[in-house]
Amino acid sequence: MMINYYLNYRGTTRVRFDLFTKLQNLGLTYHRNRPQGDSIYRLITDAFGPWGIVDVVIGTSVAAVTLTVMTIILFSRNVGLTLAAFTVAPFMIWSNWRFGVRIHKRALESKQIDADLASHIQQAMTRIPLAQAFRRENSEFRGFSNAVGRSVGALLRLNWQEQLYPLARDSILSVGGAIILGYGGWLVYRDQFLSPVADGMSVGTLLIFMDYLRKLWDPLKWLSEFFAKVRIFEAASRRVFRVLDEAETVADAPGARWIPRKLRTMTLDGVGFDYGGGKQILANISAAIRPRQMVAFVGASGAGKSTLLSLMLRFYDPTSGALRLDDLDFRELRLDSLRGHFAFVAQDSLVLPATIAENLAYAKQSATRAEIERAAEAAGAAEFIDALPQGYETVLAEGGANLSGGQRQRIAIARALLSDAPFLVLDEPTSALDPEQERRLIETLHRLKGSRTIFLVTHRLESVVDCDCIFVMSKGQIIERGAHDALISSGGAFSRARRRAEAAE
Ligand SMILES: Nc1ncnc2c1ncn2[C@@H]1O[C@H](COP(=O)(O)OP(=O)(O)OP(=O)(O)O)[C@@H](O)[C@H]1O
Ligand SMILES: [Mg+2]
Fold this sequence. Notes:
The protein is α/β, with parallel strands linked by helices and 505 residues long. The protein folds into 2 domains: 2-244, ABC transporter transmembrane region fold, CATH 1.20.1560.10; 266-504, Rossmann fold, CATH 3.40.50.300. Helix content is 59%, strand content 12%. The chain is built from 18 helices and 10 strands. It has helices at 2-25, 28-32, 36-44, 49-77, 79-85, 89-126, 128-133, 137-194, 203-244, 305-312, 335-339, 356-361, 369-378, 382-387, 405-418, 435-448, 484-490, 493-504, and strands at 266-274, 280-289, 294-299, 320-325, 328-329, 342-345, 423-427, 453-457, 469-474, 477-482. The strands form 2 sheets. The chain has a 6-stranded mixed beta sheet, with helices on both faces. The chain has a 4-stranded antiparallel beta sheet with strand order 2-1-4-5, with helices on one face. Helix 8 runs antiparallel to helix 9 and helix 17 crosses helix 18. The termini are far apart. The structure holds adenosine-5'-triphosphate and magnesium ion. Magnesium ion binds at residues 305-306, 347, 427.
């Protein structure tokens, strides 16, 4: 028994490892289109499916052996009666099949609804501040209670089938019992009274036979219970395998190359992209960025700046054109090798529920304390970290809730600075910083320029003055490019935007 548990847990752990790895490797196209709760539910609950089936199969084989042994014994007792007993077999098979299909369908439905419930809860927890601010607690509760109601409804529909199944099975067996009793009774009547034979069927033999028959029907009942169970586990497994079979859209091509991490030229060659919704987000973007340049991407909100950066980290592949590192198409490179070239600060600063030191070291596990402190200093984070009672050992809350927005942003910047990747990619790193902090960060970036290539996306036009090249984006295209002064004197969109910004100050 213990061995059984042990094997089951070992097996389930393996399934979870595979599923977790798969989820980690699946591209953002997969994750952005599905609620997180669904993946969590598959990992925690559905993962029991595959080994549940194995367990049931073991139980089934025990029942099958018992069934075979009992059948042999019964045949040796009385062939005619045993054959009569088997008249129920087709009905048993039919009901197994019929209820199996229904239970499977109901189990799949119930699992989907439970996964939706998990997603609902996960989302409701993350929007508690929003719910409180807009006094939506009551409607949140209604949403939750509806989701719970759907889950209970689906469970009841599943349970109903689970209850009907043994009922049908027992009815079939009762009819079978009646047939045998009738046939056996007739045999007794024939052998004892009609034309008596010495070794004919007697009441005693019939009773003994009926007793054996009960022993035959026990494993039959187990078998049908196993079939019901296996259908439920099968539904869970199907949800697991659906993820495992999912195509990895962004993955290493066969023969993908590993290249050493160093400064390289990045080329964007007629890059076009859409998220699959049919709307072209980027069109025909071409540019070459040489090592140690600091370039800026500016443009209206929604122009496609963050999307372009996602292509640089190969979160997605372009739908047309190519990105290259020194003439090597991104898709020819191994993902870890490619991504190792980049340190990335996303637009929404992600911080981990761990200490500040661990948060920074996420970019470079081997970082020493001195390196961590230097990165924090460069990101303008050292000051506030030193002022915390626990300093670098301060544990951050989930989502960095115990930091200010600007502090979170500086943690994210420090993390990226700690990684000595040749490309530093920053998506609006100063949006939450005050003008003084922003000035200091831009100075830091200029100091780093000698050692790295820097991509800066920003709405603060005064911070791009010293960039080597400014790309002005509009509606997914680059409409102007050049150094700051040249863009100003050409009098295009950039110079107009810059004048407006200055006038506003
Ligand atoms: N995951 C996604 N699926 C579908 N469309 C998306 C997705 N992410 C962004 N978009 C769309 O792509 C367009 C460009 O978005 P993007 O985030 O690249 O703009 P941006 O220039 O970074 O804007 P901002 O300055 O506001 O950050 C927008 O119209 C947006 O609606
Ligand atoms: Mg953006």
